[in-house]
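User: Earlier you gave me the apo prediction for this protein. Now I'd like the version with zinc ion bound, so I can compare the two side by side. Same sequence as before, with the ligand SMILES added.
Assistant: Got it. Here's the input I'm using:
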Amino acid sequence: MILYALRCDCGHEFDEWFDNMADYDARKGAIACPSCGGTKVEKAIMAPSVGKARAAAAAPPPACNPAGCSNAGCPMAQFM
Ligand SMILES: [Zn+2]
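And here is the structure of the complex with zinc ion:
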């Protein structure tokens, strides 16, 4: 499903769900503006709302220095 922001002839903006782009093309002209009922509806230019949510890179656990770890619970301690 794709949510398109649409704008009618009068400038009313509203959202409409479509299965895909072909569905939009098929229904274009049959979509009526909920505010004025106009059917001259086009896709409005939407500011992209994605891209900021960058997947935080999972930081690897800090590498333990096998030669000088002072952490008693360190798994490397058993080798010293
Ligand atoms: Zn309208």
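For your comparison, keep in mind: The domain at 1-46 is CATH 2.20.28 (Rubrerythrin, domain 2).
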